[in-house]
Amino acid sequence: AVVSTQSTGAETEKCGTVTSLHIQRAITDMYQSVKTRAIMNCTLYQKIFLKSVLGVFRRKGIEDAVFKEVYEVFSSLCQFQGIFSPPCGAVLQMCVELGSGRILLVEQGPPTIHTHIRLNCSQDDVVFALKESS
What Cα–Cα distance (Å) separates residue 112 from each residue in 16, 75, 93, 95? Predict the structure, then answer.
């Protein structure tokens, strides 16, 4: 099969055969949602926060968490990785930002330590995005 590809930058338009690499890239692009790509582009602290959300979900057995529970896991993960754990207010603001980016569903109203958090995508999508971006 012959395929024509367009690329940006220094590359020019090329014609050639379709390889397994082309097919793998196409499959990856098909299954990566906008949310998955957004998770891949999150900051280190946001990724740790998302891992913390997953940890609370798995521990509780339901996909609903309270910010206070997630913050405790977040602080532990930061300590484990040897990085500074931001104060609660900064992490709460980060949670709100993830909510405004539609990665999380954050309870309506002013954010507090009792705010309920849910994922706005599947846990598998988050795990996949976190693995791919590390």
Answer: 56, 17, 10, 11
Q: How far apart are CA 56 and CA 7, in angstroms?
A: 42
Non-local CB neighbours of 118 within 8 Å, separated by 6+ positions: 63, 64, 65, 104, 105
Average pLDDT for residues 18-29, to the nearest whole number?
Answer: 84
Cα 101 to Cα 107: distance, rounded to the nearest angstrom: 14
8 Å CB contact between 133 and 39: yes
User: What digits encode the pLDDT tens for the residues 88-122?
Assistant: 999 999 999 999 999 999 999 999 999 999 999 99
Q: Which helix (H) or strand (E) holds 119?
A: strand 116-119
